[in-house]
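Data deposition worksheet. Section B asks for the primary sequence of the deposited chain exactly as it was used as input, without tags or linkers unless they were present during the calculation. Section C holds the resulting structure in token form. Section D is free text for depositor observations; keep each observation to a single sentence. Incomplete worksheets are returned to the depositor.
Section A, Depositor: J.P.
Section B:
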Amino acid sequence: MTNGLPDISLPCLGNGPDTRLADLRGPLVINVWAQWCPPCRQESPYLADLQKKAGAKVKLIGIDYDDPRADEAVKFAVEQKLDYPHLVDQDKQARVPFKIGGPPLTAFVDKDGALVHIHYGAFSSQQELDQLVKDKLGVTW
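Section C:
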């Protein structure tokens, strides 16, 4: 799996510019989530912890997917300390390119913008997420 990110633009959750996914470069972790999704809520502390630990070495972006309540999504992201940019995919533009059955899903993107791995479902532990970042993106901290 070494294709680039799809050429779709998504609006920012909250205030901010639209982002064209094809322009993004890594090392990057893209987490597809929704505030109504229990497994997304369960894994959110792992993503917040990764962002704290990996800092400038790994970028994180969230995509609030198929979520009718943007206000609740913003509230959830703030409560969970998900202090990285979040985009909105209300129209499920990412469904086909990422093969999304439903959230959560986490994509790993290398420094050249290639999509190197997709993890379907929630992470079961911090160790699982950290290990994937090390194995797929070659990033350690």
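Section D:
The first helix runs from residue 38 to 54.
The chain has one domain: 25-137.
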